[in-house]
Design a protein that fits this description.
Blueprint (H helix, E strand, L loop, with lengths): L4 H10 L2 H17 L1 H5 L7 H10 L6 E6 L2 E6 L2 E7 L2 E5 L2 H8 L5 E2 L11 E3 L8 H16 L12
Antiparallel strand pairs: 1-2, 2-3, 3-4, 4-6, 5-6
Length: 159
Amino acid sequence: MLISSASHAHVQSCWSLERIISWREKWIARSSSHEGEMNMPMPRPDAPSKQFFTSILPQDPRVQVRPMFGNLAGFVNGNMFAGLYGAEVFLRLPAADRAELLREKGAVPFEPMQGHAMAEYVVPPDSWRDDPNRARGWVSRSLQWVGAMPAKKTKSRKG
């Protein structure tokens, strides 16, 4: 196929050396801005955190506890309602409950990566470890809300 000189000039102008270098520099800058986050080791829960997490989960036949990235998570109908990330417990809550919980000293939005909060998830105050009944009440709220959501469809396996 022959390329006319006009087409060749257009290709040259679109892909000038300056444009390629600029694109490459932008790509490197964007990639390196997440580099520290990508290389951060995944936090692992200690034995007391695992014990606390499993102790506050409701004894409900719908609840499944599964490992997730070296941590633990509670699921109902395939939807995650609570989890353990390192030593932090997190809960999935509706907007009104999130707002109420976030007003408590020590409660924060759940951010598995700094600056990247997971919508609908809150880390309750660490002081709740001394009051597991209070924690159980909030975990039950989370289970009730997430349990009313449609079941998550499982992906079919190819093979």
